[in-house]
Amino acid sequence: MKLTSVGPVIATRELSLSGKTTVSVTIGKPEIFPDGNGCYCPYQILGLRDQRISYAGGEDTVQALMLALKAVGAVLYTSPEGKGGF
């Protein structure tokens, strides 16, 4: 599934990379997949090289949200920018 927007925003956070660069994390409202099979939660991280909108899927909206938050953490900590320090 290709997303062009995170949709309604439910949470944002601004992070500082070594006091030089700001990274913005936006979490969208979890939704039901178009085919009705499970749910997804969109997120976007601005300030890193890859700024595409991604999502995590789960059985319900709570699991989708939890997995999106874990995915954001994994992206941040494994990115070259994140390895430089927050």
Global mean pLDDT: 91
Question: What's the SSE pattern?
Answer: EEEEEHH
Number of H/I helices:
2
Strand percent estimate:
35-45%
Shape: elongated
What number of domains? 1
Low-confidence stretches: none
Largest sheet: 5 strands, antiparallel
Using only C-alpha atoms, the radius of gyration works out to 13 Å
Distance between the amino and carboxyl termini: 31 Å
Topology:
Elements: E1 9-17, E2 21-28, E3 31-32, E4 39-46, E5 53-58, H1 61-78, H2 80-83
Antiparallel strand pairs: 1-2, 2-4, 3-4, 4-5
Task: State the main characteristics.
single chain; 86 residues; alpha+beta
How would you describe this structure to a colleague?
- The chain is α+β, with helices and mostly antiparallel strands.
- The chain has one domain.
- It is 26% helix and 38% strand.
- It contains two helices and five strands.
- Strands 1, 2, 3, 4 and 5 form a five-stranded antiparallel beta sheet that branches.
- A hairpin with a 3-residue loop joins strand 1 and strand 2.
- The longest helix is centred in the C-terminal third of the chain and has 18 residues.
- It is elongated and about 45 Å long.
- 17% of the residues are buried.
Describe the structure concisely.
The protein has two helices and five strands, in the order βββββαα.
